[in-house]
Design brief:
Elements (H helix, E strand, L loop, with lengths): L1 H17 L1 E4 L3 E7 L2 E6 L2 E4 L5 E8 L3 E10 L5 E12 L4 H9 L4 H20 L4 H4 L3 H19 L1 E13 L1 H80 L5 H18 L11 H20 L1
Antiparallel strand pairs: 1-4, 2-3, 2-5, 6-7, 7-8
Helix pairs in contact: 3-5, 7-8
């Protein structure tokens, strides 16, 4: 009797102990009764009817990620290789959502297979409508297209696509080499155009500077010539004024005006001698030459008086 009581108490203890269920944070437990959905248990300590209610599955409501690697073909028959990161989670905590997550697929492996193949198919369908030159520039467009295509499908499974990142997009080695050559040639073309523009600007500025220098030099030369002409005119005016005054004084003193001419003649010869710097100047220094020159100068003077 004592042994039977102990066994009974042990069985009761086991049953009572199995009635308490601990659900981890970030997880929801799905409870079934004879294989049919009954309710869900929230995180923490929960009670279930022993031997009747069973824990069918524990569903994580945290974000989950998976890496994808697959190949697609563009419209112009170029192979494109993708490496992507998929971030997804349970849509919400509603009962219908939890039932879809728990019973839509046999296990997590089948869910993951369907999810990956759906995303790969959506990306392949989009890439098939694009040329290889456009694929690299349409990374964001591909992501938006995938989200639009599969959001409704995932919602029917009880999941939501949080994010899709295309981390790496590559082509066949030959295509990559040709693309590198295209980029290099474009860079060389841009460099040549920039160098040509710089050379053109340099030459233009140089030509403008030369033109301005010529203009400045011409203006300076013109001004100098004007000053020289004015100086010569002033010199001649002063000489004429001096000669006129000297002639007047000579006449008032009853002296011969030819003395002025003789003085100018001798001073001119002296000036030639002092400033010739070795140059040879031929002058008729004879008395006859002097008389001839004096007569010519006096004749010019008399002619001016007659006028």
């Amino acid at each position: 009797m004592t042994y039977a009581l102990l066994i009974l108490l042990f069985i009761v203890f086991i049953v009572l102990f199995s009635s308490f269920v601990t659900v981890s944070q970030g997880t929801i437990a799905v409870v079934t009764v004879f294989g049919k959905y009954r309710r869900q248990l929230s995180p923490g300590l929960n009670f279930k009817i022993p031997l009747i209610e069973m824990i069918h599955s524990r569903i994580s409501i945290q974000n989950r990620s998976v890496e994808l690697s697959f190949q697609a073909v563009t419209q112009d028959q170029a192979n494109v290789y993708f490496k992507a990161m998929l971030l997804y989670s349970v849509l919400n905590h509603d009962e219908e959502t939890i039932k879809n997550v728990a019973f839509k697929f046999v296990d997590a492996t089948n869910l993951m297979q369907a999810l990956i193949r759906t995303i790969e198919g959506s990306i392949r369908a989009y890439v098939a409508t694009q040329n290889q030159a456009n694929v690299l520039a349409q990374r964001n467009e591909i992501v938006l297209h995938v989200k639009e295509q599969i959001d409704k499908v995932l919602e029917s499974w009880g999941y939501h696509l949080q994010d899709l990142q295309l981390n790496d997009i590559t082509f066949d080695e030959e295509i990559m080499r040709s693309m590198s050559r295209v980029v290099a040639s474009n860079n060389l073309k841009a460099a040549a155009e920039n160098e040509g523009q710089a050379l053109l600007i340099t030459k233009t500025k140089g030509a403008e500077a030369d033109g301005n220098a010529i203009k400045i030099a011409a203006a300076a030369e013109r001004e100098a010539a004007q000053l020289r002409g004015q100086g010569i005119a002033l010199f001649r005016a002063e000489v004429a004024h001096g000669m006129s005054k000297a002639a007047q004084e000579m006449e008032e003193a009853n002296l011969d005006i030819s003395v002025i001419l003789f003085t100018m003649w001798t001073e001119s010869i002296k000036h030639f001698a002092e400033n010739s710097d070795g140059n040879v100047i031929f002058l008729d220094g004879s008395t006859e030459g002097m008389n001839k020159t004096m007569k010519e100068m006096m004749a010019m003077q008399l002619e001016k008086k007659k006028q």
